[in-house]
Structures are given as structure tokens and as C-alpha cells.
TrEMBL record:
<dbReference type="InterPro" id="IPR039425">
    <property type="entry name" value="RNA_pol_sigma-70-like"/>
</dbReference>
<dbReference type="InterPro" id="IPR036388">
    <property type="entry name" value="WH-like_DNA-bd_sf"/>
</dbReference>
<dbReference type="InterPro" id="IPR014284">
    <property type="entry name" value="RNA_pol_sigma-70_dom"/>
</dbReference>
<feature type="domain" description="RNA polymerase sigma-70 region 2">
    <location>
        <begin position="18"/>
        <end position="79"/>
    </location>
</feature>
<keyword id="KW-0238">DNA-binding</keyword>
<dbReference type="InterPro" id="IPR013249">
    <property type="entry name" value="RNA_pol_sigma70_r4_t2"/>
</dbReference>
<dbReference type="InterPro" id="IPR007627">
    <property type="entry name" value="RNA_pol_sigma70_r2"/>
</dbReference>
<keyword id="KW-0731">Sigma factor</keyword>
<keyword id="KW-0805">Transcription regulation</keyword>
<feature type="domain" description="RNA polymerase sigma factor 70 region 4 type 2">
    <location>
        <begin position="112"/>
        <end position="163"/>
    </location>
</feature>
<comment type="similarity">
    <text>Belongs to the sigma-70 factor family. ECF subfamily.</text>
</comment>
<dbReference type="InterPro" id="IPR013325">
    <property type="entry name" value="RNA_pol_sigma_r2"/>
</dbReference>
<dbReference type="Pfam" id="PF08281">
    <property type="entry name" value="Sigma70_r4_2"/>
</dbReference>
<dbReference type="InterPro" id="IPR013324">
    <property type="entry name" value="RNA_pol_sigma_r3/r4-like"/>
</dbReference>
<protein>
    <submittedName>
        <fullName>Sigma-70 family RNA polymerase sigma factor</fullName>
    </submittedName>
</protein>
<dbReference type="Pfam" id="PF04542">
    <property type="entry name" value="Sigma70_r2"/>
</dbReference>
<keyword id="KW-0804">Transcription</keyword>
Length: 174
């Protein structure tokens, strides 16, 4: 039985020294493996265990063979897993974010009515309201853009909102 210093030396020289080349080899040979570090660690553990319980004649060959087998096992497991996950996903309650056909039709009708209400406004009022509510411009920006006072902008917004509310009420929406 080898002494503790001999075991440490063997571990460093025959296993740890090959860690980085083994990791690079795995990543190059099997680019779709999920965790090369985990495979390298498991490989070192298995080869070390074999060294403790038996005789390893070629540690480097055993490292690469073990790593290859572990990588192939991982790839096989992950090739099967998506099918299992898909079966589980199909059973999950899913909230559909798309509106139902009746909701979509109702929303389209409301949008058409709102568009008609906005189109019924006088030109200046429609411009001011569109710049404020659709484009999000401030009253100051609208005033500068249209060459009118901020008080006029505020007045036009108020008038436009009242007219739209009246239009929608007449149509049965308010």
C-alpha cells in the first residue's frame, strides 16, 4: 500500500495535472454537454477510487475514457428529458394572454368608436388631444409645436375630452 505522500503525489501528477486539458477536450469534443466541470470532477473521483481499490496502469487513458463515457451518458439523459418535460408542460394550466375572439371583436368596436369620436372633433382640438394623449407631449411642447398658448392647449384638451365622453355616451359606451 503506497504511503500518504505517494498518494498525494500520484493524485497531483496523474489526476490534477490533467484537469484543464481534460475539460478543454470535453468541451471541444462534446460542445452540447451542460457542465464539463461536473464531469471532470466525477471522472477524477472515479479514477481516484479505482486507484485506491485496485491498480491503475494508465491513469491518463482511464481519465479520458471515463470522461467520454460520462459525457455520453449525460447527453443521452438530456436527449430523453425534453420529451418528459413536454409531457409535463402539456398538463400545466396556461393562461392565454391572447384575447378571445369575442373580446377582440369588442375591443375593435370600441377602438372604432373612439377613432370616430376623435375624428368628430374640430381640427385644432383633435391635433391637441392627439399630441397629448397619443404622443404623450406636454402642454408646453404642444403649445410650442402648434404655436398656441399653454392655456389654449389646456382648454382644447378639456373640450376634447368632454366632446369624446358625450360622443361615447351617445353611442352607449359611457
Amino acid at each position: 500500500m503506497p504511503s500518504a505522500p505517494d498518494k498525494d503525489r500520484w493524485f497531483r501528477e496523474e489526476l490534477v495535472a490533467h484537469t484543464e486539458p481534460l475539460r478543454r477536450w470535453l468541451q471541444g469534443r462534446y460542445p452540447s454537454i451542460i457542465d464539463a466541470d461536473n464531469i471532470v470532477q466525477e471522472t477524477i473521483t472515479r479514477v481516484w477510487r479505482e486507484r485506491v481499490f485496485g491498480h491503475v496502469t494508465s491513469p491518463q487513458a482511464m481519465l479520458y475514457t471515463t470522461a467520454r463515457n460520462l459525457a455520453i451518458d449525460q447527453l443521452r439523459r438530456h436527449r430523453i428529458a425534453p420529451m418528459e418535460y413536454m409531457a409535463e408542460i402539456a398538463d400545466l394550466p396556461v393562461f392565454d394572454t391572447e384575447p378571445s375572439p369575442s373580446e377582440a371583436a369588442a375591443r375593435n368596436q370600441e377602438l372604432e368608436l373612439l377613432t370616430a369620436a376623435i375624428q368628430s372633433l374640430p381640427d385644432k382640438c383633435r391635433q391637441v388631444l392627439t399630441l397629448r394623449k397619443i404622443y404623450g407631449l406636454s402642454q408646453k411642447e404642444i403649445a410650442a409645436h402648434l404655436g398656441i398658448s399653454e392655456n389654449t392647449v389646456e382648454s382644447q384638451i378639456g373640450n376634447g375630452m368632454r366632446r369624446i365622453a358625450k360622443y361615447l355616451a351617445h353611442e352607449g359606451l359611457a
